[in-house]
Design goal:
Length: 533
């Protein structure tokens, strides 16, 4: 019998040992105070949550910045930084007054000018922001605490757009930071949120520290989802970057970290058998695993090559490679996710168990594929995406595609995917990512459901027909109208192939049982509300 390295790691973990923890990590882990929480999260390499949609950066923004509105546990927008607001009789002029007690971490007060500049910067890149800017006649400061948004035509979804968490999220920054173009990174890390970023303790590549903002004044309403009072129950949160997931789990078992964001699926049984640990699903809506193709470069600038990927992918093996046990995943054909009001089966004839490799080979030929290198970005610190990237490369190679992996941590993937050029100049062809199913229910704000070319999200698919349909969404008033539009949009999407779905899944986090109070919402992991016994 052959014993693999992973079998040895599993045995060590099951026995409660920490054999895989590097000595340098052991040296750094002093007994953790109950007022300090240590979390293993994705590598944070970019700190500006408008500059990138990367989840670690959005979570960083959620900690140090605040938002005008926020979604409650029923996914309804509620005022957050806004104290009072109103809309004119013609539904074109919105007036917002900031609540009392808002202050920047540098001691200066938050003003309406900060909000105006932040909205304008966010509007350059966010899907919902672009819609707002297209509809806006004017966004301006009225006085220090009041600003207005004047529309050319009514936009009933305005407060939802301002408060919805669809990266990049609308975090309010200081005016002098928000005056930078959205393509230029803000580096100051000074917000008005419930946590302060501790620059002195920052160790890039190793850990980042967040301290409770003692001057933050929570709203008086009870906490609900991302809305209500943001009550901070700990003094400090440290984000540890432990790229090896088995090492991270060993640290969790040894009580040297409290939270593990992405526990390996094949080690769920080990976690469940440990009396000190538990798995918890924070995103009850589930998530979508999908691959994005660079539509600006060969071979995927040709729609036939993108259609080939639809026929090539057999979702079940990909989801087994990612999550193992079928109880954690389902196949998926609707761009609006399974189990949502807009899920439908329009134009899904390409889906079949086992895929259709010969059809895929044929379509690559019709696309004029001539052996160009296809570079797949492989995040080695995210096991599910890493494993599916390996399978994808092998699957492409079987039909004669010159597929090559480009391994790096997620931070490297997040940096490289922004490059629009050819692979010879450091570009890319495919990367795999995920997002909450909930985010797929709003094509006005979800960047992954854009098809506006190089103004859009990574991959940059373009379809004027689809965009014309998407533009109608914000003005529809009934659920039935949106359901009908969703079918039309999906029909067009699967013709030009904006992305390729790998499946839908439920991924739990792992935590020590002494850590409680985590907010159960899709897409983001707030650090407020947590308690540590």
């Amino acid at each position: 019998m052959t014993i693999s390295r992973r079998d040895l790691i599993k045995a060590g973990l099951a026995a409660g040992t920490a054999v895989s923890i590097p000595s340098v990590l052991l040296a750094q882990t002093a007994p953790v105070a109950t007022r300090t929480v240590r979390m293993v999260k994705g590598d944070l390499t970019v700190f500006d949550p408008i500059f990138t949609t990367s989840t670690p950066t959005q979570d960083h923004g959620l900690a140090i910045y605040d938002t005008l509105f926020a979604l409650d546990s029923n996914f309804l927008p509620q005022p957050q930084m806004v104290g009072n607001w109103g809309v004119s009789d013609d539904k074109k002029t919105y007036t917002f007054e900031l609540r009392d007690g808002l202050g920047w971490h540098d001691g200066s007060p938050v003003t309406a000018a900060d909000c105006v500049a932040s909205i304008r910067r966010w509007g350059q890149v966010a899907a919902g922001g672009q819609l707002l800017m297209e509809r806006a006649q004017d966004i301006s400061m009225k006085d220090d605490k009041t600003f207005t948004i004047v529309l050319k035509e009514p936009l009933g979804l305005l407060t939802e757009i301002l408060g919805r968490y669809s990266a990049p999220d609308l975090y309010i920054m200081r005016e002098k930071d928000a005056n930078l173009p959205a393509t230029e990174q803000v580096t100051a890390n000074i917000g008005s949120g419930p946590f302060k970023f501790n620059e002195a303790l920052a160790k890039p590549g190793a850990s980042f520290t967040y301290d409770r903002n003692e001057k933050y004044i929570p709203r008086k309403e009870p906490p609900s989802g991302f809305a209500g009072g943001k009550i901070v129950n700990v003094d400090r949160v440290i984000w540890e970057n432990i790229s090896d997931q088995q090492t991270a789990l060993a640290a969790l078992q040894a009580d040297e970290v409290d939270f593990l964001e992405l526990p390996p699926a094949d080690l769920y049984p080990v976690i469940e058998s440990d009396p000190n640990l538990t798995l918890q699903v924070l995103n009850k809506t589930g998530s979508v695993l999908h691959l994005r193709m660079n539509c600006l470069q060969k071979p995927f600038d040709n729609v036939k090559a993108r259609q080939a990927m639809l026929h090539l992918i057999d979702q079940e093996p990909f989801m087994r490679a990612a999550f193992g046990d079928p109880k954690y995943f389902h196949t998926l054909t609707s761009i609006f996710g399974n189990g949502t009001p807009f899920s439908n089966d329009e134009n899904t004839g390409w889906f079949r168990k086992g895929g259709d490799p010969e059809k895929a080979r044929q379509l690559f030929g019709e696309a004029g594929y001539a052996g160009e290198k296809v570079v797949i970005l492989q995040p080695t610190d995210w096991a599910e995406a890493s494993n599916t990237s390996l399978l994808l490369a092998a699957t492409l190679q079987k039909i004669g595609v010159n597929a090559e992996l480009a391994p790096s941590d997620w931070g490297g993937v997040a940096a490289r995917r922004a490059k629009k050029g050819p692979v010879e100049d450091g570009g890319w062809s495919i990367f795999i990512t995920s997002e909450s199913v909930f985010s797929r229910t709003d094509p006005t704000s979800n960047p992954a459901l854009l098809a506006n070319g190089d103004r859009g999200w990574y991959g940059w698919p373009k379809s004027d027909e689809y965009e014309a349909l998407r533009a109608k969404w914000a003005d529809l008033e009934t659920l039935d109208e949106r359901k009908a539009l969703a079918r039309q949009m999906q029909r067009v999407w699967w013709d030009f192939v904006g992305d390729v779905l790998l499946g839908q899944f439920m991924a739990p986090i792992a935590r020590r049982k002494t850590l409680t109070g985590l907010v159960e919402m899709p897409g983001r992991t707030p650090m407020w509300s947590m308690r540590k016994a």
